[in-house]
Amino acid sequence: LIATRNPSEERLLAYAAGNLSPPEAVVLAAHLALRPANRAWVDRLQAVGGELLETTSPSRLSDGALSRAMARIDADGGEAAIRPALNDMPELPEPLRRYELGPWRWAGPGIRVRSVQAPRDGQCRVILLKIEPGRETPRHTHEGVELTCVLSGAYATETERFDVGDFEEADGDVMHQPRVVSDEPCLCVVALAGEIQLPGLLGRLMQPFMRL
Ligand code: ZN
Questions:
Q1: Global pTM?
Q2: Residues 15, 31: contact at Cβ < 8 Å?
Q3: For residue 57, how far is its CA from the centre of ligand 1 (angstroms)?
Q4: How far does the centroid of ligand 1 lie from the alpha carbon of residue 94, in Å?
């Protein structure tokens, strides 16, 4: 039995309502492109939102939530087919092909990162992380939320394994050390708020390289 790692229901609901921060929404959109069942769930939720819009007095709706949800439906439905792909990674799921990418940068042994030029939210930004087989990140915790979706390959933490499409939510309560367990490099898209926190001497040496 292969376990699939999904976003929390709260995060899926926030996405469906258009209330997720832009960087988090980019990672969630990549996940939904790889997990049609979750995509269908969000679509159904948004359809219900549309019906509410027609049958409920606007004054009773929360501050623009449904109009944002409707705008998201328009964006998801219409733009993909006509927008030209912008970046040099055709293997990326469609939602990520819309964004320009920064140059690959070294971020430790067997680890490379490049920025995704998606809208930021304060300190929260989107990056691609590529780690070679058998390599691992330094053991770390987080200043803010860290959302990860696996795009190719697989990694494991001390307690779980994450394969293509799987989604990991981590924050300051989570200390982990993802290690690539696939024969190919593991490519992930990550929304990262604040700095990742690297304890120990190696961590202090690595910290400047992990900063984007
Ligand atoms: Zn982490």
A1: 0.81
A2: no
A3: 43
A4: 25
